[in-house]
Amino acid sequence: xxxxxxxxxxxxxxxxxxxxxxxxxxxxxxxxxxxxxxxxxxxxxxxxxxxxxxxxxxxxxxxxxxxxxxxxxxxxxxxxxxxxxxxxxxxxxxxxxxxxxxxxxxxxxxxxxxxxxxxxxxxxxxxxxxxxxxxxxxxxxxxxxxxxxxxxxxxxxxxxxxxxxxxxxxxxxxxxxxxxxxxxxxxxxxxxxxxxxxxxxxxxxxxxxxxxxxxxxxxxxxxxxxxxxxxxxxxxxxxxxxxxxxxxxxxxxxxxxx
Length: 258
Ligand code: ZN
Ligand code: MN
Description:
This protein is of the alpha/beta class.
């Protein structure tokens, strides 16, 4: 695994000759309850990118550690101290700027690896605007945008949730993220502070100005009790295995198919 912020431009230029996959992790600085750090989404996106780049021989770009505004029904919302978010136009512009620069370097394969649900359409727009430019200029870059959780195998979810997975909507700072952090960074989890004030109960609409309606005071949207490093390992490794297979196929890097 090579991080571009730790190599010289000379090394970078030489590595690009083999047309590696570059990974751009994107996260958020967002409350994740009293027991997880605010960098959780950025930490997971970064770790996923690092692991995949090791498996696929890619390069990892510096993480975008801020994300689009937290929404009550997916991240508890913007009412919490600490949650520090970007306007959508800022995230779109940052994404387009980075892609434009990568194209100038000759990068041909990019994975935008998103760890924060609310980012996805702004990352998409940034990629779309860059692609429009590339088409006009005769440049080409194959870009995959993914939210890593979409690749967690159903069999793993069945096992972790004992056949009762409620869906990703309320999985904010809950069983999945807490288990993942216990596996990767147990020193960043304060298990004694795992709250019991959830689960969240939301109407099927969003309130503006945001008022935290339905959000438990802790900011945790579903139960995190029962989280464990073992469950985290199953989630992480199941997700990585599935993502590796798909990315090999998308980028013609051989390996087994599904
Ligand atoms: Zn999160
Ligand atoms: Mn998030």
